[in-house]
Amino acid sequence: MSSAPRQISLEQWAPRRLELLRQGMREPNYGGPIQRHVTLEGDLRLRHLRYDDSAASLRLWNFLLSENDRLREARQQGKLIVGAMKDLGTVPVMAYTLPQVVAFYPDGAWWIPCLMECGSQELAIADRMGIDEAFCPVRAMLGAFDTLSHFPAPHLLICSAGATCDDFSAIAQRLEGMGWPIFWWEIPSRRAPSIGEVSVDLPGGFRAAAATVVWVRAELGRVRKRLEQLAGRELTDEMLKSGIAAANRVRRLLGELRRLVFTADRCPLPALETLITEMLAIHYCSDREETLAVLTELLGEVRRRVAGGTGTLPADAVRVFWVNPVADLRVMNLLEACGGRLCGTDFMFFHALEIIPEELEPMEALARMALADPMVGSSAERAGRICRDAVEFAAEAVVISRIPGASHCAWEGAVIRETISARLDLPVVEIEVPSVSDPLSPALQTRLEALMEAARARRSMRSSG
Amino acid sequence: MTRTIAYVSPFVPAEWIAAHGLCPLRLLPDRPPAAIPQGACPFAAAFAGCASGVNGFDGLVVAPTCDQMRRVSQRVAEARRDVFVMHVPACWQSEEAPTAYLAELRRLGQFLAQLGGTPPTDAHLAEVMRMHDDARAAAAQRHSARERRGIPVALIGGPILRADRFVYDTIARCGGRVVLDATETGSRCRPPRFHPDRLGDAPLSELARAYFEIPDVFRRPNDPLHEYVRREMAVRGVRGVVLARYVWCDLWHAEFARLRQWIDCPVVEIDLAGGDRDGAGQRVGTRIESLLESLR
């Protein structure tokens, strides 16, 4: 008999998992108690999070937290490990078309300080290398490469450069300086066509000058050749089409999941699980097929909850659009503790959520997809897209989450805030979330609660008049 | 009356603007406004301030090579119609990169024509390029012929605001002499001399080739920057190094650690804030003094 969904602590997961097993839950080979990730890997933050208590969420968490094991096993089995860096969604689509290749994002190391509550040595290593707190938490990636105690050594690193954030670019260059060769490829700024230039429609509603699409296509052509060299075989257009189709299967599942989560009267999936689920779109957590299975199960759970009008949050939770990923996962719980729910997200990679056009020649499709990256164009364009989605998901408030040290955060917040105020007249708050936000929690809570109050006041005014 | 086109970045060839019959003006912002966003680079903030108003120029060309300048440039371009933002490739090793830069110069040419410039013939462009090339060479010769007193020092970093030019005076006051100005307004960012043969054949391609070779921190990989600094330090007999960056400049901040790994003379880092904010002047002065004292 299924009970009403609830959010539980790590301690409560042990009996809950046993209950689910008694109810017939079958776990994949990476399943097990979440607690083990605390003891085996030092992921201390897990002790302080609150979790959705479904079998689907348990599978999601175990899938996420077992990625490094999967990568190590893949390497031992002779698979070729590609570290895709910065582009967030394009290179893995190409890499996974090669059967012996597994791709992952070393950028994900930015959550190591959070998960290990700054108790690991990665940040200290970065400090010793001169990459201090003035940089974004992705600096932990340097420490991760130094120790190789998280992910195994990749066979190839592929990194986009150009219209990218400075701290990642600087950190990646530093990584190369440590002796890790990097294959660099250019992602130029997305710009409007000049007079006389041909314009190209990109997924997600942006437009770009055709010349930039041609440029990116040539750059991805170099990436393709490099992958072929690594794999020792040709990467054909047919293979790419197949890879794009597979990526789109993931994106469609995720799109439906997001739509349900953001539009249901009662939120069917908490913010933290929603954030993690979206991350799967970038690189499939190093297992594309299993990503499909995880998403399918989650979608099934969400559909059941929507049909039954159930969820873990109050029905009157304030609908919040969230901009930028959080360095501390716990803040997603805090949003809900303050009375909010996620109704729309821009975690800096919504191009990885868009369907890749399958009617186009594959390299053209991938080039357009890469240029649709919200971080590659102007903050104003990004703000426009946020507004569009905020309307679609009926958001009542917006949170702009600054990443400490991130170069884009210095300027984009004001642009996004001004645009939302002018077009939608929604309350907006900007907060900064460090890797471990506990000391700032009271201040963050105050700001989020004030936002919820403003949103509720607007809601009352609208319903009364 | 000749129209003036302001530009920011060494990757905007002044010759190209001049060859269109327009007057190029290198924009050197003075200082940032009193209040700047948290995490904002003072240079980018200063540029945003001076580019946003009506400023005595007829057009503005920006070639941002960092994320902060890119975002500020986009914002400025969205606010005024006479702004051209060009993308300078970071990845320089591919065959496409110099071609892409050349294409950006052609696109810039179209913008200049829209502002009243006249597309130059190859011959006129070549002539303008020779004039600028000769002027740069003459200026370099005058600089090297100047009085040679002072401890030879390298100043390495990005752009320097007008309000921070006191760094040069401070170095001189403390007994130093900048023999290698590897900042964005120094010799590092001057293009190499043009090949006379190529000036005749394809001057725009030669212009693109020369400017594209400017070594800079944003390039990926940026080994040419290190090769340039290593070579020039040896040639000029540098005995001490001042690494100058703006607060919140990630690119130079990260690079200084790498430079320190191989530079085998005393090095001091200074972070600039756009004038004497928060006691920056004294802080910078003290650090430069200590460097030069150690070299006496």
Strand order of the largest sheet of chain B: 2-1-3-4
Order of helices and strands of chain B: EHEHEHEHHEHEHHHEHEH
Assign the structural class of chain A, choosing from mainly alpha, mainly beta, alpha/beta, alpha+beta, or little secondary structure: alpha/beta
How many helical elements of chain A?
A: 18
Strand neighbour order, sheet with most strands of chain A: 4-3-5-6
Q: How far apart, in Å, are the first and last alpha carbons of chain B? A: 53 Å
Radius of gyration of chain B: 19 Å
Outline of chain A, from the CA principal axes?
globular
**Approximately how much beta-strand content do the residues of chain A carry?**
5-15%
Look at the helices and sheets of chain B and give the structural class: alpha/beta
Following the backbone from N to C, one meets helices and strands of chain A in this order, namely: EHHEHHEHEHHHEHEEEHHHHEHEHHEHEH
Low-confidence stretches of chain A: none
What does this structure look like?
The complex is a heterodimer of chains A (465) and B (296). With 465 residues, chain A is an alpha/beta fold. In chain A, helix 3 packs across helix 12 and helix 16 packs across helix 17. In chain A, 50% of the residues lie in helices and 12% in strands. Chain A has 18 helices and twelve strands. Chain A is globular and about 60 Å long. In chain A, the strands form four sheets. Chain A has a four-stranded parallel sheet. A four-stranded parallel sheet of chain A has the order 10-9-11-12, with helices on both faces. A two-stranded antiparallel ribbon of chain A has the order 1-2. Chain A starts with 6 loop residues before the first strand and ends with a helix. Chain B is α/β, with parallel strands linked by helices and 296 residues long. Chain B has helices at 14-19, 42-52, 67-79, 96-114, 122-145, 166-173, 196-201, 203-212, 223-236, 250-262, 280-295; strands spanning 4-8, 23-26, 59-62, 83-85, 151-157, 176-182, 240-246, 267-272. In chain B, strands 2-1-3-4 form a four-stranded parallel sheet, with helices on both faces. Chain B has a four-stranded parallel sheet with strand order 6-5-7-8, with helices on both faces. In chain B, helix 2 (42-52) runs parallel beside helix 3 (67-79), helix 4 crosses helix 8 (203-212) and helix 6 packs parallel to helix 11 (280-295). The longest helix of chain B is centred in the middle third of the chain and has 24 residues, at 122-145. Chain B is globular, with a radius of gyration of 19 Å. The mean pLDDT of chain B is 94. The chains are: A alpha/beta (465), B alpha/beta (296). At the A-B interface, strand 5, helix 9, strand 6, helix 10 and helix 17 of A face helix 3, helix 4 and helix 10 of B.
